[in-house]
Write a structure and sequence with these properties.
Elements lengths: L11 H8 L3 H11 L27 H7 L2 E4 L10 H8 L5 E4 L16 H13 L6 E4 L1 E3 L2 E2 L13 H7 L2 H18 L3 E2 L26 H16 L4 E7 L14 E2 L10 H8 L5 E4 L2 E2 L13 H11 L5 E3 L6 H4 L4 H11 L4 E3 L10 H14 L5 H16 L2
Parallel strand pairs: 1-2, 1-12, 2-3, 3-6, 6-7, 7-9, 8-10, 9-11
Antiparallel strand pairs: 4-5
Length: 403
Protein backbone atom coordinates (compact mmCIF):
# COMPACT_ATOMS: atom_id res chain seq x y z
CA UNK A 1 0.00 0.00 0.00
CA UNK A 2 1.22 3.51 -0.67
CA UNK A 3 -0.01 6.94 0.31
CA UNK A 4 0.22 9.82 -2.13
CA UNK A 5 -0.09 13.41 -1.11
CA UNK A 6 0.26 16.38 -3.37
CA UNK A 7 2.92 18.70 -1.97
CA UNK A 8 1.88 22.23 -1.44
CA UNK A 9 3.42 25.24 0.19
CA UNK A 10 1.76 27.80 2.38
CA UNK A 11 2.76 31.36 2.87
CA UNK A 12 2.49 32.67 6.43
CA UNK A 13 -1.02 34.07 6.01
CA UNK A 14 -2.32 30.82 4.52
CA UNK A 15 -0.83 28.80 7.36
CA UNK A 16 -2.38 31.11 9.93
CA UNK A 17 -5.76 30.55 8.31
CA UNK A 18 -5.29 26.78 8.25
CA UNK A 19 -4.01 26.44 11.80
CA UNK A 20 -6.22 29.07 13.34
CA UNK A 21 -3.27 30.86 14.90
CA UNK A 22 -3.17 34.56 15.60
CA UNK A 23 -0.49 36.81 14.15
CA UNK A 24 0.87 37.37 17.65
CA UNK A 25 1.11 33.64 18.26
CA UNK A 26 2.85 33.09 14.94
CA UNK A 27 5.36 35.74 15.91
CA UNK A 28 6.10 33.77 19.06
CA UNK A 29 6.51 30.55 17.08
CA UNK A 30 8.71 32.23 14.52
CA UNK A 31 10.99 33.56 17.24
CA UNK A 32 11.27 30.03 18.55
CA UNK A 33 11.76 28.14 15.29
CA UNK A 34 12.92 30.71 12.77
CA UNK A 35 11.11 32.17 9.79
CA UNK A 36 11.99 29.47 7.26
CA UNK A 37 10.15 26.57 8.85
CA UNK A 38 8.66 24.00 6.54
CA UNK A 39 4.89 24.26 6.65
CA UNK A 40 4.13 21.49 4.20
CA UNK A 41 1.72 18.87 5.56
CA UNK A 42 3.31 15.65 6.74
CA UNK A 43 2.00 12.54 5.01
CA UNK A 44 1.19 9.40 7.00
CA UNK A 45 4.10 6.93 7.08
CA UNK A 46 4.39 4.79 3.96
CA UNK A 47 4.31 1.24 5.27
CA UNK A 48 2.81 -2.08 4.35
CA UNK A 49 -0.31 -3.37 6.05
CA UNK A 50 0.27 -4.94 9.43
CA UNK A 51 0.05 -8.72 9.12
CA UNK A 52 -3.31 -9.95 10.42
CA UNK A 53 -3.60 -13.59 11.38
CA UNK A 54 -5.73 -15.85 9.13
CA UNK A 55 -8.15 -16.40 12.02
CA UNK A 56 -9.38 -12.79 11.89
CA UNK A 57 -8.99 -11.96 8.23
CA UNK A 58 -12.67 -12.63 7.75
CA UNK A 59 -13.66 -10.08 10.41
CA UNK A 60 -14.69 -6.62 9.28
CA UNK A 61 -11.39 -4.88 8.59
CA UNK A 62 -12.83 -1.62 9.87
CA UNK A 63 -13.59 -3.16 13.28
CA UNK A 64 -9.96 -4.16 13.69
CA UNK A 65 -8.70 -0.72 12.76
CA UNK A 66 -11.12 1.06 15.10
CA UNK A 67 -10.24 -1.24 17.98
CA UNK A 68 -6.55 -0.52 17.50
CA UNK A 69 -7.26 3.16 18.21
CA UNK A 70 -8.34 2.43 21.79
CA UNK A 71 -6.19 2.02 24.90
CA UNK A 72 -8.21 1.27 28.04
CA UNK A 73 -7.74 0.63 31.72
CA UNK A 74 -9.52 -2.07 33.71
CA UNK A 75 -9.73 -3.53 37.20
CA UNK A 76 -7.94 -6.73 38.10
CA UNK A 77 -4.61 -8.21 39.13
CA UNK A 78 -5.17 -11.41 37.18
CA UNK A 79 -7.15 -12.38 34.12
CA UNK A 80 -8.86 -15.46 32.70
CA UNK A 81 -11.69 -16.46 30.38
CA UNK A 82 -14.25 -15.55 33.03
CA UNK A 83 -13.22 -11.88 32.99
CA UNK A 84 -15.59 -11.30 30.13
CA UNK A 85 -15.33 -7.50 29.83
CA UNK A 86 -11.61 -6.98 29.26
CA UNK A 87 -11.34 -10.30 27.41
CA UNK A 88 -14.16 -9.26 25.06
CA UNK A 89 -12.55 -5.87 24.58
CA UNK A 90 -9.32 -7.51 23.46
CA UNK A 91 -10.68 -10.52 21.61
CA UNK A 92 -13.87 -9.17 20.07
CA UNK A 93 -13.27 -5.42 19.79
CA UNK A 94 -9.54 -5.78 19.02
CA UNK A 95 -8.52 -2.93 21.31
CA UNK A 96 -4.95 -1.98 20.63
CA UNK A 97 -3.70 -1.19 24.10
CA UNK A 98 -4.03 -1.65 27.85
CA UNK A 99 -3.16 0.95 30.49
CA UNK A 100 -2.00 -0.28 33.90
CA UNK A 101 -2.57 1.52 37.22
CA UNK A 102 -1.43 0.86 40.77
CA UNK A 103 -4.28 2.74 42.45
CA UNK A 104 -8.03 2.62 41.95
CA UNK A 105 -9.37 6.15 42.40
CA UNK A 106 -12.98 5.07 41.97
CA UNK A 107 -12.76 2.51 44.79
CA UNK A 108 -10.12 4.40 46.77
CA UNK A 109 -8.19 1.15 46.76
CA UNK A 110 -4.39 0.75 46.74
CA UNK A 111 -4.67 -2.15 44.28
CA UNK A 112 -5.76 -1.76 40.67
CA UNK A 113 -3.46 -3.86 38.46
CA UNK A 114 -0.14 -3.74 40.33
CA UNK A 115 0.68 -6.04 43.23
CA UNK A 116 4.16 -7.47 42.66
CA UNK A 117 6.68 -7.98 39.83
CA UNK A 118 5.72 -11.63 39.35
CA UNK A 119 2.01 -10.80 39.36
CA UNK A 120 2.38 -7.98 36.80
CA UNK A 121 4.45 -10.15 34.47
CA UNK A 122 1.82 -12.90 34.65
CA UNK A 123 -1.01 -10.41 34.08
CA UNK A 124 0.59 -8.84 31.02
CA UNK A 125 1.36 -12.23 29.52
CA UNK A 126 -2.24 -13.35 30.05
CA UNK A 127 -3.60 -10.20 28.40
CA UNK A 128 -1.40 -10.69 25.34
CA UNK A 129 -2.69 -14.23 24.86
CA UNK A 130 -6.10 -12.86 23.90
CA UNK A 131 -4.73 -10.35 21.38
CA UNK A 132 -4.52 -11.29 17.70
CA UNK A 133 -2.47 -8.12 17.14
CA UNK A 134 -0.04 -7.70 20.06
CA UNK A 135 -1.10 -5.09 22.60
CA UNK A 136 0.61 -1.87 23.49
CA UNK A 137 0.86 -2.16 27.27
CA UNK A 138 1.33 1.32 28.68
CA UNK A 139 2.07 2.72 32.11
CA UNK A 140 2.88 6.05 33.75
CA UNK A 141 6.38 5.22 35.01
CA UNK A 142 8.00 8.64 35.09
CA UNK A 143 9.96 8.10 38.31
CA UNK A 144 9.68 9.79 41.66
CA UNK A 145 6.14 10.75 42.68
CA UNK A 146 4.43 9.63 39.46
CA UNK A 147 5.39 5.99 39.52
CA UNK A 148 2.93 3.11 39.03
CA UNK A 149 5.55 0.55 40.09
CA UNK A 150 6.30 1.56 43.68
CA UNK A 151 9.25 0.33 45.69
CA UNK A 152 6.92 -0.92 48.45
CA UNK A 153 5.57 -3.50 45.97
CA UNK A 154 9.02 -4.88 45.20
CA UNK A 155 10.02 -2.68 42.26
CA UNK A 156 13.33 -0.76 42.05
CA UNK A 157 13.64 2.73 43.49
CA UNK A 158 13.21 5.57 40.99
CA UNK A 159 13.92 9.30 41.05
CA UNK A 160 11.99 12.22 39.61
CA UNK A 161 12.70 14.22 36.49
CA UNK A 162 13.34 17.21 38.77
CA UNK A 163 16.03 15.30 40.66
CA UNK A 164 17.77 14.35 37.41
CA UNK A 165 17.51 17.86 36.01
CA UNK A 166 19.01 19.36 39.15
CA UNK A 167 21.90 16.88 39.05
CA UNK A 168 22.27 17.74 35.35
CA UNK A 169 24.36 14.66 34.65
CA UNK A 170 23.28 13.15 31.36
CA UNK A 171 25.05 9.87 32.10
CA UNK A 172 23.13 9.61 35.37
CA UNK A 173 19.84 10.20 33.56
CA UNK A 174 20.72 7.50 31.05
CA UNK A 175 21.62 5.03 33.82
CA UNK A 176 18.36 5.55 35.69
CA UNK A 177 16.35 5.36 32.46
CA UNK A 178 18.11 2.17 31.38
CA UNK A 179 17.25 0.53 34.69
CA UNK A 180 13.64 1.66 34.33
CA UNK A 181 13.50 0.34 30.77
CA UNK A 182 14.86 -3.02 31.88
CA UNK A 183 12.27 -3.16 34.66
CA UNK A 184 9.46 -2.60 32.15
CA UNK A 185 10.90 -5.08 29.67
CA UNK A 186 11.07 -7.75 32.37
CA UNK A 187 7.36 -7.23 33.06
CA UNK A 188 6.34 -7.30 29.39
CA UNK A 189 5.36 -3.61 29.43
CA UNK A 190 6.39 -2.09 26.11
CA UNK A 191 5.30 1.57 26.37
CA UNK A 192 6.16 4.15 29.00
CA UNK A 193 4.07 7.34 29.15
CA UNK A 194 7.20 9.33 29.82
CA UNK A 195 9.34 11.40 29.69
CA UNK A 196 7.52 14.56 30.67
CA UNK A 197 8.94 17.35 28.51
CA UNK A 198 6.89 20.13 30.07
CA UNK A 199 9.10 23.12 30.78
CA UNK A 200 8.99 24.24 34.40
CA UNK A 201 7.96 27.81 33.64
CA UNK A 202 5.62 28.02 36.65
CA UNK A 203 7.23 26.79 39.90
CA UNK A 204 3.80 26.92 41.55
CA UNK A 205 2.21 24.57 39.02
CA UNK A 206 0.33 21.95 41.12
CA UNK A 207 0.47 19.06 38.67
CA UNK A 208 3.91 19.51 37.03
CA UNK A 209 6.27 21.41 39.35
CA UNK A 210 4.28 20.35 42.40
CA UNK A 211 4.95 16.69 41.59
CA UNK A 212 8.59 17.22 40.47
CA UNK A 213 7.78 16.11 36.92
CA UNK A 214 9.84 18.61 34.92
CA UNK A 215 13.55 18.35 34.25
CA UNK A 216 14.10 22.10 34.15
CA UNK A 217 12.89 25.60 33.37
CA UNK A 218 15.42 25.56 30.51
CA UNK A 219 13.76 23.96 27.46
CA UNK A 220 17.08 22.91 25.95
CA UNK A 221 18.04 21.13 29.16
CA UNK A 222 14.65 19.43 29.16
CA UNK A 223 15.29 18.20 25.62
CA UNK A 224 18.78 16.86 26.43
CA UNK A 225 17.69 14.90 29.49
CA UNK A 226 14.55 13.64 27.78
CA UNK A 227 16.61 12.23 24.92
CA UNK A 228 18.89 10.38 27.32
CA UNK A 229 15.82 9.08 29.13
CA UNK A 230 14.39 7.82 25.84
CA UNK A 231 17.66 6.21 24.76
CA UNK A 232 17.86 4.34 28.05
CA UNK A 233 14.42 2.87 27.41
CA UNK A 234 15.27 2.06 23.81
CA UNK A 235 18.17 -0.08 25.03
CA UNK A 236 15.50 -2.31 26.57
CA UNK A 237 13.26 -2.12 23.48
CA UNK A 238 10.66 -0.08 25.38
CA UNK A 239 9.05 2.89 23.64
CA UNK A 240 8.41 6.31 25.17
CA UNK A 241 5.74 8.99 24.87
CA UNK A 242 6.50 12.68 25.25
CA UNK A 243 3.93 14.65 27.22
CA UNK A 244 1.95 16.92 27.49
CA UNK A 245 1.68 18.71 24.11
CA UNK A 246 1.75 21.68 23.54
CA UNK A 247 2.91 22.24 27.12
CA UNK A 248 1.47 21.97 30.62
CA UNK A 249 4.36 23.52 32.54
CA UNK A 250 2.91 27.01 32.76
CA UNK A 251 -0.52 25.98 34.01
CA UNK A 252 -1.91 27.12 37.33
CA UNK A 253 -4.35 24.23 37.71
CA UNK A 254 -4.68 20.46 37.26
CA UNK A 255 -6.53 19.21 34.16
CA UNK A 256 -7.52 16.06 36.07
CA UNK A 257 -9.86 18.31 38.05
CA UNK A 258 -11.23 20.67 35.40
CA UNK A 259 -10.55 22.94 32.46
CA UNK A 260 -7.08 24.52 32.50
CA UNK A 261 -6.54 27.80 30.63
CA UNK A 262 -2.91 28.60 29.77
CA UNK A 263 -3.69 31.46 27.39
CA UNK A 264 -1.93 34.04 29.53
CA UNK A 265 0.93 31.85 30.74
CA UNK A 266 1.98 29.61 27.83
CA UNK A 267 5.13 30.50 25.89
CA UNK A 268 6.39 29.16 22.58
CA UNK A 269 9.61 27.99 24.23
CA UNK A 270 7.51 25.13 25.62
CA UNK A 271 7.61 23.67 22.09
CA UNK A 272 11.42 23.54 21.94
CA UNK A 273 11.80 20.08 23.53
CA UNK A 274 9.31 18.65 21.02
CA UNK A 275 11.12 20.24 18.11
CA UNK A 276 14.53 18.98 19.24
CA UNK A 277 13.42 15.43 20.03
CA UNK A 278 11.32 15.05 16.87
CA UNK A 279 14.11 16.31 14.65
CA UNK A 280 16.58 13.98 16.39
CA UNK A 281 14.31 11.05 15.48
CA UNK A 282 13.82 10.02 19.12
CA UNK A 283 10.10 10.73 19.51
CA UNK A 284 8.16 7.44 19.47
CA UNK A 285 4.82 8.94 20.45
CA UNK A 286 3.40 12.16 21.85
CA UNK A 287 0.56 12.64 24.34
CA UNK A 288 -1.74 15.65 24.16
CA UNK A 289 -2.60 18.02 27.01
CA UNK A 290 -6.15 18.95 27.98
CA UNK A 291 -5.15 22.61 28.17
CA UNK A 292 -6.99 25.50 26.57
CA UNK A 293 -5.06 28.28 24.85
CA UNK A 294 -7.19 30.72 22.89
CA UNK A 295 -4.13 31.99 21.04
CA UNK A 296 -3.71 28.52 19.51
CA UNK A 297 -7.38 27.57 19.32
CA UNK A 298 -10.13 29.87 20.58
CA UNK A 299 -12.71 27.09 20.84
CA UNK A 300 -11.45 23.80 22.30
CA UNK A 301 -8.57 22.37 24.40
CA UNK A 302 -5.51 20.93 22.69
CA UNK A 303 -6.66 17.29 22.67
CA UNK A 304 -9.69 18.24 20.59
CA UNK A 305 -8.00 20.91 18.46
CA UNK A 306 -7.20 20.38 14.79
CA UNK A 307 -5.17 23.61 14.60
CA UNK A 308 -2.98 22.38 17.47
CA UNK A 309 -2.72 18.64 16.72
CA UNK A 310 -2.71 18.70 12.92
CA UNK A 311 -1.69 22.29 12.21
CA UNK A 312 1.03 22.68 14.83
CA UNK A 313 2.25 19.20 15.74
CA UNK A 314 1.79 17.35 12.45
CA UNK A 315 2.50 20.13 9.96
CA UNK A 316 4.61 22.69 11.78
CA UNK A 317 6.73 20.31 13.85
CA UNK A 318 6.61 17.55 11.22
CA UNK A 319 5.65 14.73 13.59
CA UNK A 320 4.28 11.72 11.72
CA UNK A 321 4.16 9.05 14.41
CA UNK A 322 1.52 8.09 16.97
CA UNK A 323 -0.36 10.76 18.90
CA UNK A 324 -2.06 9.65 22.12
CA UNK A 325 -4.76 11.60 23.89
CA UNK A 326 -4.39 12.20 27.57
CA UNK A 327 -7.04 10.32 29.54
CA UNK A 328 -10.37 11.15 27.93
CA UNK A 329 -12.14 10.77 31.27
CA UNK A 330 -10.23 13.58 32.97
CA UNK A 331 -12.59 16.36 34.03
CA UNK A 332 -11.04 18.92 31.67
CA UNK A 333 -12.74 16.91 28.91
CA UNK A 334 -15.47 14.84 30.58
CA UNK A 335 -17.03 17.76 32.45
CA UNK A 336 -17.44 19.83 29.28
CA UNK A 337 -18.03 17.35 26.46
CA UNK A 338 -20.09 14.20 26.01
CA UNK A 339 -18.12 11.08 25.11
CA UNK A 340 -19.31 11.08 21.48
CA UNK A 341 -18.40 14.72 20.94
CA UNK A 342 -15.00 14.29 22.59
CA UNK A 343 -14.17 11.15 20.59
CA UNK A 344 -15.27 12.77 17.33
CA UNK A 345 -13.30 15.97 17.91
CA UNK A 346 -10.15 14.16 19.07
CA UNK A 347 -10.03 11.91 16.00
CA UNK A 348 -10.83 14.82 13.71
CA UNK A 349 -8.04 16.79 15.38
CA UNK A 350 -5.52 14.07 14.51
CA UNK A 351 -5.31 11.87 17.62
CA UNK A 352 -4.43 8.25 16.79
CA UNK A 353 -5.03 6.45 20.09
CA UNK A 354 -7.72 7.46 22.55
CA UNK A 355 -6.56 6.71 26.09
CA UNK A 356 -9.40 5.85 28.47
CA UNK A 357 -7.92 5.09 31.87
CA UNK A 358 -11.19 4.31 33.65
CA UNK A 359 -9.50 5.39 36.88
CA UNK A 360 -11.20 8.71 37.62
CA UNK A 361 -14.69 9.22 39.02
CA UNK A 362 -17.15 6.41 38.40
CA UNK A 363 -15.81 3.19 36.90
CA UNK A 364 -17.50 2.46 33.54
CA UNK A 365 -17.18 -1.27 32.79
CA UNK A 366 -18.26 -1.01 29.14
CA UNK A 367 -16.37 2.18 28.28
CA UNK A 368 -14.32 0.47 25.56
CA UNK A 369 -17.49 -0.86 23.92
CA UNK A 370 -19.05 2.59 24.09
CA UNK A 371 -16.05 4.26 22.45
CA UNK A 372 -15.76 1.51 19.82
CA UNK A 373 -19.43 1.83 18.87
CA UNK A 374 -19.20 5.62 18.75
CA UNK A 375 -16.27 5.55 16.31
CA UNK A 376 -17.93 2.92 14.12
CA UNK A 377 -21.14 4.94 14.02
CA UNK A 378 -19.24 8.10 13.13
CA UNK A 379 -17.61 6.29 10.21
CA UNK A 380 -20.87 4.75 9.06
CA UNK A 381 -22.65 8.10 8.99
CA UNK A 382 -19.76 9.80 7.22
CA UNK A 383 -18.69 12.07 10.09
CA UNK A 384 -15.25 10.39 10.05
CA UNK A 385 -13.83 8.89 6.87
CA UNK A 386 -12.39 5.40 6.60
CA UNK A 387 -9.26 7.03 5.20
CA UNK A 388 -8.84 8.92 8.48
CA UNK A 389 -9.09 5.64 10.43
CA UNK A 390 -6.58 4.08 8.05
CA UNK A 391 -4.04 6.84 8.74
CA UNK A 392 -4.09 6.13 12.47
CA UNK A 393 -4.09 2.38 11.97
CA UNK A 394 -0.96 2.56 9.84
CA UNK A 395 0.88 4.70 12.39
CA UNK A 396 -0.13 2.35 15.21
CA UNK A 397 1.03 -0.76 13.35
CA UNK A 398 4.31 0.92 12.51
CA UNK A 399 4.83 1.55 16.23
CA UNK A 400 3.96 -2.04 17.09
CA UNK A 401 6.44 -3.42 14.60
CA UNK A 402 9.22 -1.76 16.58
CA UNK A 403 8.40 -3.79 19.69
Amino acid sequence: MSHKMTKWALDRREFLKLAGLSTATMALLTSCFGSNMNTEPVAPPIIEHSPISPEIQSINDLDIKIGQMLMVGFRGIEINDNDELIVQDIRDRHIGGILLFNYDVAQKSPVRNIQSPAQVKKLVSALQIYAEIPLLVGIDYEGGIVNRLPQKNGFPKTVSHQFLGQKNDLDLTRRYATEMGNTLKGLGINLNFAPVVDVNTNPNNPIIAGKERSFSSDPNLVAKHAMEYIKGHHQANVLCTLKHFPGHGSSTADSHLGMVDVTETWNSKELIPYREIIHAGEADGIMTAHVFNKNLDPEVPATLSKPIITGLLRQKLEFNKVIFSDDMQMKAIASHYGLETAVHKAIDAGVDILVIGNNTGDFVPDIAAQAFNIIKRLVQNGAISEARIEESYQRIQQMKRRI
